[in-house]
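Deliverable D4.2, example record:
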Amino acid sequence: MASPSNQNVGSSSQQQHLQEQDQEQQLVPQITCSIPLDKLEVICELMVDFDNLEKHDVHLTENMVFQGWGPLFYDLCGPVYPDLVKEFWVHANVMPKAILSIVHGEFFSITEPLIRKLFGLMNVEGVTEATPRTDWDVVYAEIFQNGQKSK
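Output generated by the structure prediction step:
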């Protein structure tokens, strides 16, 4: 016959095991995407080759630098991990001010301030240390034809 102390040890071990199972179940993120994981497609954008564009008489480099978009194009060069991107979006919750998700048990939050920080766009206008434009007539003359909005 087993002693009562052995029964308590067994039951506390079982309780601990049940608690661990509950914790594991709580860590499983909710699937919020209606598209099955194997049907998701990650489209990897190609790097913009400004040198090649210049060779073909498409002159964007000066405007890109002037507008402060350098970090946007140059920081996005690098490897893409489609499986991680898919896992992010399968578990993503889109909120009014953030996108929340869990990838490999880690919580991620993407917010506008985070994106601004990553691209060095810290002020409301979007460009750090940009000189505000004061002569809008020059701009309007460039984008409007004969004083009318162009198509």
